[in-house]
Amino acid sequence: MVAPELEPETSNSILTLLSEVMDPEIPVINIVELGIVRGIEDGSPPNVIITPTYVGCPATDMIHEMIREKLDAHGYDHVEIKNQLSPAWTTEWITKAAHEKLRKYGIDPPGAHTPSCPRCSSTNTRLISEFGSTPCKSLHACKDCLEPFDRFKCH
Amino acid sequence: MNIAENYIGATTPSSPKTAYMLRLADNALILGQRLSEMCGHAPEMELDLALTNISLDLIGQAKLLFEHILTLEDLAPNADVLALTRPQDQYTNLLLVAQPNVDFAHIVLRQYLFSTMQKIQYEALLGSSDKTLAAIAEKSLKEIAYHIRFAKSWVLRLGDGTPESSERMADALDCLWRFTGEMFERDNIIEQAEVSGLSTDFTSSYEDWQMEVKDGLAEAGGLVAPEVGQMIMGGHKGQHDEHLGHILSDMQFMQLRHPGLQW
Ligand SMILES: [Zn+2]
Predict the structure, then answer these.
(1) Which fold does the domain B16-257 belong to in CATH?
(2) pTM of the model
(3) Is A93 an 8 Å CB contact of chain B?
């Protein structure tokens, strides 16, 4: 059997579909912005390559199902989803556009910057715990507005 | 919910390669299960989150390893059956990871001793002849770095804290140190893992590990590892103490009661 050529348009429309799949735990950013969609691999069948953020992240299975549903609903039921562990996911793969969305959502985006309060922008903060509400976030408190906030851990 | 009609169980690995990976998986599974007992019981909410997050990381590692093992050898119909149906003497985890959550000092010290070893053990897999195993190690190492930071910071705080906290740290050390020799024990399985290129030799780092950990302990209010006449071993051969039995009776209950159960 000859491997079907994956037209660039097809590959693009799959990517567009995937950018409609939102992260179940941070519903303001999609899985393409989050950097877990590594690409569409041509072949028979074609594969969507995804890289999990954390190995034990319960959202990984859910994201898998959401992608499956999306693909099936748009006639891409022959496209398979392939998990790729290496190279390991890093927060550097989160797009800059997603950083702004995270801040607006109340999460300090990852990066080398001093932790800053997503509400009042103060950098006068303290770390409460390196382990926050989900594996990818740490918990901080703002000493100016006194609100607690999550920060995306550099990983 | 699906339940199988006939008994299904896991079989013992026949290749040294899968046997070695099963050790790694069992360590992660049993320590993950042990830590999950703390859900809702840690001294404060942030610590509750930390311990359960570490538990989740470890169970995630175990899941990847069990699933990978099954692609190499048909030991069970799925990862749940492999993880949850073996008799006690078929688990090859270290004795250390099954030790009970006596108090918070025991919990953080156990984590410190284990994670510092696990880092060395997984670094030895990065150039593995098995690319999937190398990828699992690469991914896990990012998480292990957090586990070490968390555990070490608490060993320091408690060891260098109040008279009571440092006494509890010292008690935990007296209790757990005797299980550390096993982490670097050499045997046939590990030698074959090295010969086949699955792992490089990490056991030769035993002295470096001891130095690193003893320095950490000294920093923690001058804790000193006890002199141990003979390290306690046996986990690799499936010779466990009663603590693993208690974990298994809890962890295996649903799979054994309803074989093949899937949610
Ligand atoms: Zn603020």
Answers:
(1) Ferritin (1.20.1260)
(2) 0.89
(3) no
